[in-house]
Design goal:
Rossmann fold; 6-stranded parallel β-sheet
């Protein structure tokens, strides 16, 4: 098939490369000429494992090209995927301006006599596709065009998106056109996964419902971690015991400083706003959002209880800036939020992240932050170490040697990567999240 992808972010670029790898002829469209030029040279605008190699491969085989040319790319695609950003607006709802702008451009350049399917992969609220259809027609003006709209939400995880695209749990396609559904089913039929063919509204809601449920699971175990800290239980043991129940499962039961990134915060809030627009108070989601905000506050409170609220005499080493491991994405990263709070209280920060330093610089600037080239450097002369992103390599550092370089052997582990007993044996004052041997005993026996 001939496929056009509008947008070269995490979803668009990965989807385009994967479709091309499946044998389709793909054009990726973006208005950013510099980004397009770099992609065509094999320089990726995002960090994603295996993406650079895959783009180079499909480009050399003649099945993939990035372009800024709307006319040629819209004429090219039998399937046109909208993969642009839908950031939250000031009210917390999804900003659909980029989606509608793309839809109008599709209509403007769509040939008169060719049938096309316009598919939204961007995460959009229920009812959006009716508006997409309208905006395509607005762009077309008086021109007679032949198209259907469809919803095909993505379920890619940053850091493992190429694997996920080829090994998905399910494919969701929604449309009010059987013809469009059949074409999309044909695109995905080679995958060993169930294909859910449904209506537009259900397809639009599935992505929000899935992400909101996972966010709820994270917030639940984080709330359990607070009970653990107050009762002397260990959240790792509790999560293990819960996760072995097949009805629950172990995934997304890792207590920490809260969820972040470009999906969960935005999607949870957008679903809550949608419920409000339809005059329903989704109180559970309000609790999920509130719990997530409070979780990082609980973590920072540990720091303030130890040092006071004036941190101007202290230097903190920090491991992690990305919102999760395997990506360079710092959008709505809890790590960045914690760093800002510590710096705002006067602390000097030495920061390392394997992939996200450049994006961290854009978020934090140079004020009171030193960006390190390696993890070992942040330990030197640090008054405390903070682990804020769950990169696996952070768990495997040579802590017996590295903590010797610190001014004080203090570790605040916001992702529970380390073993409290092992840290205690090294003479480390260890603060985790819901851990039995946390050095912070202010919540013991329910006392705050």
């Amino acid at each position: 098939m001939k496929i056009t992808i509008i947008g070269t972010g995490y979803v668009g670029l990965v989807s385009g490369a994967v479709f091309a790898d499946w044998g389709h002829n793909v054009m990726c469209l973006d208005i950013d000429k510099d980004k397009v030029d770099k992609i065509n040279k094999g320089i990726m605008p995002i960090y994603e494992e295996g993406l650079e190699e895959l783009v180079k491969k499909v480009s050399s085989e003649g099945r993939f090209k990035a372009t800024t040319d709307y006319k040629s790319s819209i004429e090219h695609g039998e399937l046109i995927f909208i993969c642009v950003g839908t950031p939250s607006n000031q009210a917390g709802a999804a900003n659909l301006n980029y989606v509608f702008s793309a839809a109008e451009s599709i209509g403007k350049y769509m040939p008169n006599d060719e049938y096309k399917v316009v598919i939204t992969k961007s995460t959009v609220p229920v009812g959006t596709h009716n508006k997409v259809r309208e905006h395509v027609r607005i762009g077309a003006g008086n021109k007679k065009i032949n198209f259907d709209v469809a919803s095909n939400p993505e379920f890619l995880r940053e850091g493992t998106s190429i694997y996920d695209a080829n090994n998905t749990d399910r494919v969701v396609i929604g449309s009010d056109s059987e013809k469009a559904l059949d074409i999309l089913e044909d695109l995905y039929k080679h995958l060993d996964a169930p294909i859910v063919k449904t209506d537009l509204a259900s397809a639009e809601l599935i992505k929000y419902a899935a992400n909101s449920f996972l966010a709820t699971k994270i917030s639940f175990i984080n709330e359990i971690s607070q009970i653990c800290e107050r009762t002397g239980a260990d959240v790792k043991s509790v999560a293990l015991g819960m996760g072995l129940d097949k009805r629950i499962g172990s995934r997304f039961l890792n207590a920490g400083i809260g969820y972040g990134g470009s999906c969960f915060p935005k999607d949870v809030e957008a679903l809550y706003r949608t419920s409000s627009e339809y005059f329903y108070d989704f109180r559970l989601l309000r609790g999920v959002m509130d719990a997530n905000e409070r979780q990082k506050d609980y973590f920072v409170d540990k720091v303030f209880r130890k040092y006071g609220t004036n941190l101007s005499e202290l230097t903190f080493g920090v491991l992690g800036a990305a919102f999760k491991n395997g990506t360079d994405d710092t959008r709505k990263s809890v790590a960045i939020s914690v760093i800002r709070t510590l710096r705002g209280a006067g602390a000097r920060i030495k920061l390392f992240d394997p992939a996200a330093l450049e994006n961290a610089k854009k978020e934090l600037g140079q004020d009171n932050v030193k960006y390190s080239d390696n993890a070992e450097d942040v330990f030197k002369k640090a008054d405390a170490l903070f682990i804020l992103t769950e990169w696996p390599e952070f768990a495997n550092l040579e802590y017996p040697e590295l903590v010797k370089d610190m001014n004080k052997k203090v570790i605040f582990d916001g992702r529970n990567l380390l073993d409290p007993i092992e840290m205690k044996d090294l003479g480390v004052e260890y603060y985790g999240v819901g851990r039995k041997d946390d050095a912070d005993d202010t919540h013991e026996n329910g006392v705050k």
